[in-house]
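The aim of this short unit is practical: by the end, you should be able to scan a pair of folded records and say something sensible about each. We start with the first protein, listed as its amino acid sequence and then its structure tokens.
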Amino acid sequence: MFGFTKTTMVDRADALPGRDTPMPVPERHEVLGTPLTPPYPEGAQIAEFGMGCFWGVERTFWRLGAENGIITTAVGYAGGYTPNPTYEEVCTGLTGHTEAVRVVFDPDRISYTDLLKVFWENHDPTQGMRQGNDVGTQYRSMILCHDDAQRAAAEASRDAFQPVLTRMGYGPITTEIVPATPFYFAEPYHQQYLSEAKNPNGYCGVGGTGATCPVGVAPADS
């Protein structure tokens, strides 16, 4: 497409067509041993975030542990147009998706606000269509909200964090806070990519700004 760059959001009409068949994924989480796909336990809630390369992001959340309310995590593609895309298609920038992580959690043990604190502190939400050396729309910062309460919490946490970043010399937050879109699971080899069983020496350069987000509390039993 003439004039298109990977840092420009593709128009819906120009997005790749995709397919009707979902990506098959492993039945259980490599580390937690819990199901990757629904149905999830009664009372569980879903949070979804884009924070750059999803390998390191997923590990950040699963390491919170079952004892702190994490039921399962998975990586996939969200916020775009192409149904059931492949990783190669997402990398072209022609699907509109960001690399996303799904966190299924027990709200009686860890709150959505706790997860937002992890979100803000573990990437740079001011970089637009990139995260560090990873450049393109697939690496943009995004919070995908599953209800009005999540959206209100996300917006409040953003507004609380911006003054902290400004004092540290960072620019405006570019994180998109949007209603949840379809979450398309990524290929099996991406799921828990940085686990000891798959890539014990693997690396993913997801990092934060060093700023502490002034929202949230410690997990309930920590």
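Turning to the second protein, read its sequence before its tokens, just as you did above.
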Amino acid sequence: MTLNDLKNDWISEFSQPMMIAGPCSAESEAQMLETARRIKETNAQVPIFRAGIWKPRTKPNGFEGVGVIGLNWLKKVKQEYGFKTATEVANAHHVAAALEADVDILWIGARSTVNPFTVQEIAEALKGTKKTVLVKNPVNPDLALWIGALERLLGQNIENLGVIHRGFSTYQKTKYRNNPNWQIALDFKSQFPNIPMLVDPSHICGNRTGLADITQEALNVGYQGAIIETHSNPDEAWSDASQQITPEVLAELISNLKVRNSGLAGFDNEMGRHRTLISDIDFQMIELLSQRMKISEQIGKLKKENDIAIFQPERWKVITEYAVQKAKETGMSQDFIEKVFKAIHEESIEKQNNIMINRM
């Protein structure tokens, strides 16, 4: 059996979009029950309650989760409010404890997905389970690692699988905590349309701004749901406070989502994919142009300190020759490429001019 052979009937149990919500971290029984109660009282279509029991942190000595005791609170949420439950597992010990607590859905986090040894340990501990296992994309943009993690699980006869797109880490600072890099996620979806994909806007955004937009964008390109961090008192959360929302805000977000279902669904999905990829590329271009202008500013400072003229004809000649070369290589219009480079060069000169006359 291969990944393409999986039926993944588990997803049909839930209405679309399938929503998973709950706090980043379990902090206390009271916090868990209040969050669950308020999600229930909003009548939001959320069948699955999530909470981090063990929290892998970037640096030591921070809050790393309450541990096994939190599983008892998850059980109580299930008993009192009827939610199915979900949590992250990162080793065989976590798996054993989660299975004993009858957690319904387990997910493998981005830091674990990146390590084949860790994934193999988790897969062997889960061997033959009928539980649903979701795999977050690896921290770095590596499609092969993501697919490999699923293949390791399938190798242990785990057949109820899904993936979570939570974005990819980047050295560059952007408006996202983790860049969506939609191309990689959509490449996965194209290869394995039978494997349900959820979006994790909380980790993509890293704050409350943009959660609705990212979730809607994912639904527009055929994702089946989302996992959104929700806390009874987000500002006081012990981890990732800035990206969590209240149950009431969650309910409003969900109520405003639009799931397309028309005779042109195939066309809409394909068009949506193309538009999403264009938006992603546009965002990357703007970020790169911003970085380029910052370098131009540094060059401007050097020119000012050394009394060097801003415009350097030889440099402009190199740029235009490069533009002609790239136009030929890419099959794009030479005139178009030259216009783009000219606009960039003019903006660069303007920034350096401002430095020369002390405007910056």
